[in-house]
Amino acid sequence: MISVPQQKRFIPKLGKDVTKKNIKCHFCVTNSEPDYKNIAQLKSFISEKFKILSIKTTRLCAKHQRKVAKEIKYARMLALLPFVPKYK
């Protein structure tokens, strides 16, 4: 058999001031948890088309990203957040 050389994994280069160590989860730093009643906080994790932002955009840890998504969905069911934007 002819062996094929393995491809190197692509690892994006971060700038000098941005490393994985200094990117911290907002909830881990403030030692708080997301809450469906805090609408202003939840709106910061929603795009202008009312989609839940990705983990790369929000820079949350996986645990808190799941909780934020759950709380946003719960707030939508209680009509605290809209499902879709209002079009004029």
Keywords:
single chain, 88 residues, mainly alpha, 30s Ribosomal Protein S18, 34% helix
The CATH homologous superfamily of the domain at 26-77 is termed Ribosomal protein S18
Q: How would you characterize the largest beta sheet?
A: none
Distance between the termini: 65 Å
SS-based class:
mainly alpha
The whole-number mean of residue pLDDT values reads: 83
Helix content: 25-40%
Number of helices: 4
What does this structure look like?
This protein is an all-alpha fold. The protein has a domain of 52 residues: Irregular (30s Ribosomal Protein S18). Helix content is 34%, strand content 0%. It is globular. The model has no long low-confidence stretch (mean pLDDT 83).
Brief summary of the model shown:
The chain is mainly α and 88 residues long.
Q: How are the secondary structure elements laid out?
A:
Layout (H helix, E strand, L loop, with lengths): L25 H5 L8 H5 L11 H4 L3 H16 L11
